[in-house]
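tool_log.txt
---
The assistant was asked to compare two proteins side by side. It first ran the structure predictor on the initial sequence, then on the second. Raw inputs and outputs are pasted verbatim so the downstream comparison step can read them without reformatting.
(1)
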Amino acid sequence: MKVLIIGAGGHGQCVADTLLRGWRAGSEVEALGFLDDVEPLATDHFAGLPLLGRVPDLGDFPEAAVVVAVGDNAARKRLFEEMASLGRVRATVIDPTAVIGSDVIVGAGSYVGPLSIIGPGCRLGSNVIVNGGGCIGHHSRLGDHVHIGPGVVTARGANIGHGAMVGAGTVIKPEVSIGRGSVVGAGSLVSRDLGEHVTAVGAPARAVRRQEPW
């Protein structure tokens, strides 16, 4: 399968690195390059792959699957849904160093980064990001468009709502829920449930302001 990466920024380059290492290890998934609408770009190559054009140039590659590699949740959701409306196959990218439980479900278009661990019984929605070193405890659930930062640890049974963002190095205690659209600051300790569309920080994490719903 040939894959186009939508987004040539930092996260896109992480996705490219995973695809290239997988290809060298014998994977049949081949990364063709990037499409990106940001202008101007300083170079025409990122992580060893070429910049092939802008997102509207997608039609030049009718057989390629796509992965939306944009860190911002709202922008990633918009692009993911645009790709779905065009009937494009949305590739799921899992780093070869990740450890995935045998009964885990990972939704379409998601990315699981290097050295991540996804425990048994977990369910990840579509268009999810689990960055490198993330550890998702057994029987946890992540909604669509969730973004898990590097080194996040959830204990068993975490429930992270649609479109939530969990900052790097955060720890989430057992059976705790984070509401849809909420943002948890880096290095927080989430010891009790958080509502929808809030920003929370600290140890223990406390809501400090409201987020505008998408």
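(2)
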Amino acid sequence: MKAIRLHDFGGPEVLRHDEVPVPAPAPGEVLVRVKAVGLNPPDWYVREGMPGVPAEFKPPFDLPLIPGTDISGIVEAVADGVQNFTAGDEVMGLLRFPDAMQSGAYAQYVTAPAADLAPKPAGVDHAHAAGLPMSGLTAWQYLIEVGHDHPSPFQEARHRPMPLTADTTVLVNGAGGGVGHLALQLAKWKGARVIAVASGAHEEFLRDLGADEYIDYTRQRPEDIVRDVDLVLDAVGGPASRRFLPTLRRGGALYPVYFGDFDDAENAKLGVTVTGTQVRANGAQLAELGKLLDTGAIRVAIDSTFTLEDAPAAHKRAAQGHIQGKIVLTVP
């Protein structure tokens, strides 16, 4: 089969289009003929060798490796112990994450734990289905239900999503990206009022997804004009995430998707909660997201598509930033 492999760490040019053997599924796994692959930040973090990540948090990588975790495709074969899928089923999934940071998705075939898969909605094409798993599950596990007991590697406190109702105001930072545009829609699905923060080019897109208010961060700093929100989901996160603390009411919460630098004493003085979690593969939760996708309650936006062979160009697009939705590889 054809696959993209990483032989060395570096820029997009290190991604090579190779001929490799078709993998064999282990017990409890299925073999999937991949039709589309969703790209995610861990793909380029690993490609670069995860620079800046402390050694104790950096998992070992055996090169060459086939990157990617998000797929949509067709079950080709099932191994022993698989009861809920058969050959010919259309499926989607986030594979093995975070136990394996990369799971071989950039390929014509991939093996997948059956528990990580969900049925692909019949009315949704493979490209849009492939854009859902990691971003959708991140939004779901932050906002709706964690669904696992694994502690975050970045904090001791367990993440417990705030209940979202019609009386809840949610600010989503980075609302135009993969996680952000799905988080916005999930918050609206639960009835919340949503303030979307992104660059000016995304305003029409995000208002069409249901944003009640829009802030162009290139013109206004949200922390200067927003007050008394119940929840901030910061899909950008990182060291600057604490700038959103002044936007919260007492009793509010800040969820940085990429955890930053926070002071527990400061949070306690302000009366706010700052927690996060690490997204984990979960076929049952993904099936719930698939139902919402199938009914049109949420939708996946595609920024751009590239063929499998053009994976380096897809990574170059990711490096340009200002992504609207998801970047997807189509697999011949």
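---
observation on (2): The mean pLDDT is 95. The domain at 151-274 is CATH 3.40.50.720 (Rossmann fold).
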